[in-house]
Amino acid sequence: MPAAADARNPRRVKSMDRYATRVFAALALASAALYGAADFFGGIASKRAATVVVAFVAQSAGLVLLVVIVPLLPSSSPVRGDYAWGAASGVAGSVGVALLYRALAVGTMSIVAPITAVCAAAVPVLAALALGERPGAIAGLGIALATAAIVFLSRGESGEATAERRGSAAGLALMSGVAVGLFFLCLARTSRDAGIWPLIAGRSVSVPLFAAMVAATRHTFRMEFASLRTTVACGTLDMLANALYLIATRYGPLTLVATLASLYPASTVVLARLTLGERLTRAQALGVACALTAVVLIVGGS
């Protein structure tokens, strides 16, 4: 059958749409799981070493991973705008990561991560709506439920930390969320043919930036082996998450991709519960249930 006829075949078009929905949903959810795990490791490392040092090592590990895999990927043709958006994402991501790791170090992980995610989801979703994206009613309900899930996940026990520490961590988390949201938005603005070059451009900005911050604060670049291993794991997982998110934005609408990717607190909360013994409250359990329902609605309504 000719290509033109295939394009006019309603069944074939519907099948292709379903395939694209499954692809972007799977990629976005996988990126969320990896983002959450990376944040967990970053928070652990930041309790043992200076935040700027952890961020520098993690960002460097991600850059090394990119350099290694570039020769194995299909050829791409980025334009000047892709590098510009990539560099902008590097600046926004640097600010977001530094604030997030600090918040995770001084606060409770199961509270900090969801607070960050609220803003991280809101920034690209609002921008996409302003640019004309209109998700369907069911998908829109899924976005609302995902936002509620993030709020529920942020509800920790009041006795877990002092009011002052909770306030400080929450403030850092909010600022981090805005920066992470801008990072998501910048990457989504790159072209389909850019490959992973926007990520390389971003890391080419963030690594020297954090190196300068380490030097300016007179911290040593040296880390204990246990902290180094945790930090490298953080950087590797974070970069893999970035790559999956970037690909997902090329298959699906930003409103839905950003919402699914912003469900990353679920994996942070689960890891904190399993390894650190942080207790999962009833509200957080409800948040996990809301998150799972939101995924079904977003995928089903896309």
SSE arrangement:
Elements: H1 3-8, H2 10-48, H3 51-69, H4 80-106, H5 109-130, H6 137-153, H7 163-188, H8 197-216, H9 225-248, H10 254-261, H11 265-276, H12 282-301
Helix pairs in contact: 2-3, 2-4, 2-9, 2-10, 2-11, 3-4, 3-8, 3-9, 4-5, 4-7, 4-8, 5-6, 5-7, 5-10, 5-11, 6-10, 6-12
Q: Using the alpha-carbon principal axes, give the shape.
A: globular
Give the ordered list of helices and strands.
HHHHHHHHHHHH
What is the share of helical residues?
over 70%
Described by strand count, sense and barrel closure, the largest sheet is:
none
Structure summary, number of beta strands = 0
Which structural class do the helices and strands define?
mainly alpha
Distance between the termini: 28 Å
Radius of gyration: 19 Å
**Tally of domains:** 1
The number of helices is 12
Report what the structure shows.
- It is a single chain.
- Helix content is 79%, strand content 0%.
- The two termini are 28 Å apart.
- By secondary structure, it is mainly alpha-helical.
- The relative contact order is 0.23.
- The protein is globular and about 55 Å long.
- It has 12 helices and no strands.
- The chain has one domain.
Give the tags.
302 residues, mainly alpha, disordered N terminus
Quick overview:
The chain has helices at 3-8, 10-48, 51-69, 80-106, 109-130, 137-153, 163-188, 197-216, 225-248, 254-261, 265-276, 282-301.
